[in-house]
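User: I've been trying to design a sequence by hand for this structure and keep getting stuck. Would you show me what you'd pick, starting by listing the structure so we're on the same page?

Assistant: Good idea, let's start from the same input. This is the structure you sent:
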């Protein structure tokens, strides 16, 4: 296990180093990071399986992982950077977190204060301007895909929480479609209470867990 952790740390450091290389465009940095992450993960897999029935070495795993990371990852283009900056402006003071994920997706983490009342999936009025701006940026970069994931706290049963989380994602998708974004670009999913980011034992923790996550990605290859 210690070796596995060391490998993952090395992967992270390698990817971070690539993103800081001089004379590289954002696109090149994104593709390079994808290759580095893919190579590192492949190396870990290779190391774990070396000597077993697969006969795969760490080097072979790294090579396969690099190919997958470079060819099947996401770009961080100028369009993506501009979209991030636009959403950072649009979400100021709302409690919505805007970030770039390690695999070059734009992520909006929308807590319950800005998204939905407890037990409901009707979009709150203060979220609508943010989604309006998101719709505009999505129309400006039609190469992107969108994935919306709904979450709940652990109050209530799975029979209630699972469909509620899906309905929250669907309500967000339908709002974006109504603002001109093609539904073919948008995927939805609900995770119920299965992926908490805070302690459900406290009121504040449950509020953090009631959220939607919106991921915007520009595929590196089509």
């Amino acid at each position: 296990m210690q070796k596995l952790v060391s490998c993952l740390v090395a992967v992270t450091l390698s990817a971070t180093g690539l993103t800081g290389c001089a004379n590289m465009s954002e696109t090149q940095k994104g593709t390079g990071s994808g290759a580095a992450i893919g190579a590192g993960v492949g190396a870990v897999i290779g190391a774990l399986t070396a000597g077993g029935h697969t006969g795969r070495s760490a080097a072979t795993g790294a090579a396969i992982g690099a190919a997958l990371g470079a060819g099947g990852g996401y770009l961080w283009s100028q369009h993506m950077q501009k979209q991030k900056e636009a959403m950072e402006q649009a979400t100021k003071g709302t409690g919505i977190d805007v970030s770039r994920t390690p695999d070059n997706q734009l992520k909006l983490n929308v807590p319950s204060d800005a998204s939905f009342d407890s037990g409901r999936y009707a979009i709150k009025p203060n979220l609508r301007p943010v989604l309006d701006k998101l719709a505009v940026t999505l129309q400006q970069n039609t190469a992107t895909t969108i994935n919306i994931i709904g979450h709940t706290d652990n109050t209530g049963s799975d029979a209630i929480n699972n469909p509620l989380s899906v309905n929250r994602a669907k309500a967000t998708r339908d709002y974006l479609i109504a603002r001109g974004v093609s539904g073919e670009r948008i995927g939805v999913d609900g995770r119920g209470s299965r992926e908490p980011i805070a302690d459900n034992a406290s009121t504040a923790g449950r509020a953090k867990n009631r959220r939607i996550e919106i991921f915007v990605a520009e595929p590196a290859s089509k």
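That's my pick for every position. To get oriented when you compare it with your attempt: The first helix runs from residue 2 to 19. Strands lie at 74-75, 97-100, 106-111, 145-151, 186-190, 211-219.
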